[in-house]
Automatic annotation (TrEMBL):
Species of provenance: Blautia argi
GO MF annotation terms: allantoinase activity; dihydroorotase activity; zinc ion binding
Protein name: Dihydroorotase
InterPro entries listed in its UniProt record: DHOase, DHOase/Allantoinase_Hydrolase, DHOase_cat, Dihydroorotase_CS, Metal-dep_hydrolase_composite, Metal_Hydrolase
One cellular-component annotation, GO: cytoplasm
Residues that hold substrate according to the record: 64-66, 96, 280, 311, 325-326
Enzyme class per UniProt: hydrolase
Assigned keywords, A-Z: Hydrolase, Metal-binding, Pyrimidine biosynthesis, Zinc
Cofactor comment text: Binds 2 Zn(2+) ions per subunit.
Length: 427
């Protein structure tokens, strides 16, 4: 397969080049880049990228594929198709499945299924403890042998610090990152939305910032002691930004991610009773959101990830206290990032490429996330000027649970190329 992309705005974070030109790829590898390219042989496909960003294929460090066991919500194939439509060429799957992915053969199950069916790269993350019960360590070294890029207890925090420290020591020894969901299990106390005037008005149990902040602090302390690379998932509070900034000032190996819903919405936007505004961590206050925006602008946050968390309509039709936490994100992340961050001047298109591709790649030790001659042809083409209305019924994900249905946005994925093959093209 030979593909020629013409006249795109090529954004390459690895050498910080930002220039209009062509890219030519053959057999899954970038062969030529820049200027006007006239291939010796006729390409199988020519894609016009005039007015579009051409970025290294997007990498989402935080996706719930629900496979095995919860495939009524999503499976490897539907999740990977949604990813391709969203511009992602690599996604990392969280292990809070049924059963939990806590040993090598379950990692292999997902990797084999993905290799056979998925249009994009799927990397399975391993759990920290057996069945995510927080009592005994999972077979972390066995899973590392099977190719996990990271360990995570996402969905909860490992509350036993002695056990967690042991896990971090193993992660440090093998140089894989620990992806931390920060939530004190005792302090959350049945909360379902942010603790503020809205939770009080609606009579809903609230989640304070401290539920997240105490674990962020704890985890940074443990990373400092063990030398483990710590990646803080779905940061939502203003103090998490300050703590990551402090950790970075000390040159600790700490990185952080923000999800589009947390930089787009606050608890003021909640529609009473609409469980599509229920996710963990919850939508916080304007003060928190402004701190997240500043953290993104100033590169305190390295990553934008989706925390794509599909659930069925039935589950989401329950009450605010009963419905599960989580919203889908793979098919709205690019538009929300362009609309809320790039268009408003919070981050540059280059920072978008860094936070959605280059930095995630570096965190997992991958050589993707760059547009260089000789690198794998994972490429995302985005029209930043295209305006449209988000329609959840068009999602390829099984999950339609989004608060962004009907929202007017800018920024459309025109094509996604994975290993030199067009895996999605907008018609
Ligand atoms: N974020 C969520 O609200 N839900 C996630 C779990 C998680 O990411 O903590 C899920 O698995 O549904
Ligand atoms: Zn989480
Ligand atoms: Zn998650």
């Amino acid at each position: 397969m030979k593909i020629l992309i013409q006249k795109g705005r090529i954004l390459n974070p690895s050498d910080q080049t930002d220039e209009v030109g062509d890219i030519y790829m053959e057999d899954g590898v970038i062969k030529e880049k820049g200027g006007t390219i006239t291939p010796e042989e006729t390409p199988d496909k020519v894609i016009s990228a005039e007015g579009c960003y051409v970025m290294p294929g997007l990498i989402d460090l935080h996706v719930h594929l629900r496979d095995p066991g919860l495939t009524h919500k999503e499976d490897v194939l539907t999740g990977a198709r949604a990813a391709a439509r969203g511009g992602f060429t690599t996604i990392l799957a969280m292990p809070n499945t049924k059963p939990v992915i806590d040993c090598a053969d379950r990692v292999e199950y997902v990797h084999n299924k993905a290799r056979e069916l998925a249009p994009v790269h799927v990397l399975q993350i391993g759990a920290v403890t057996k069945q995510q019960k927080g009592e005994e360590l999972a077979d972390i070294e066995g899973m590392i042998q099977a190719g996990i890029p990271a360990i995570s207890e996402d969905g909860k925090s490992v509350m036993n610090m002695k056990l967690y420290r042991e896990a971090m020591e193993i992660a440090a020894k093998h140089d894989i990152p620990v992806f931390a969901h920060c939530e004190d299990q005792n302090m959350v106390n049945g909360g379902c939305v942010n603790e503020d005037e809205h939770s009080r008005e609606l009579g809903l149990p609230g989640i304070t910032n401290s539920v997240e902040d105490v674990i962020v602090a704890r985890d940074i302390v443990l990373a400092k002691e063990t030398g483990a690379r710590l990646h803080l998932c779905h940061c939502s509070t203003k103090d998490s930004v300050r703590m990551i900034q402090l950790a970075k000032e000390e040159n600790l190996p700490v990185t952080g991610e923000v999800c589009p819903h947390h930089f787009t919405l606050t608890s003021d936007d909640m529609v009473p009773g609409d469980t599509n505004y229920k996710m963990n961590p919850p939508l916080r206050t304007k003060e928190d959101k402004d701190a997240l925006l500043k953290g993104l602008k100033e590169d305190i946050f390295d990553v934008i990830s989706t925390d794509h968390a599909p659930h069925t309509r039935e589950e989401k039709q329950k009450t605010m206290t009963e419905a599960p936490f989580g919203i889908v994100g793979l098919e709205t992340a690019v538009a929300l990032t362009v609309t809320e961050l790039v268009d408003k001047g919070v981050i540059t298109p280059m920072q978008m490429a860094e936070k959605m591709s280059y930095n995630p790649a570096r965190i997992i030790g991958s050589d993707r996330g760059r547009l260089e001659v000789g690198s794998p042809a994972d490429i995302t083409i985005i029209d930043p000027e295209a305006e449209y209305v988000i329609d959840s019924m068009s999602f390829l994900s099984k999950g339609k649970n989004t608060p962004f249905d009907g929202r007017k946005v800018k920024g459309l994925v025109k094509a996604t190329i994975c290993d030199g093959k067009v895996v999605y093209q907008q018609d």
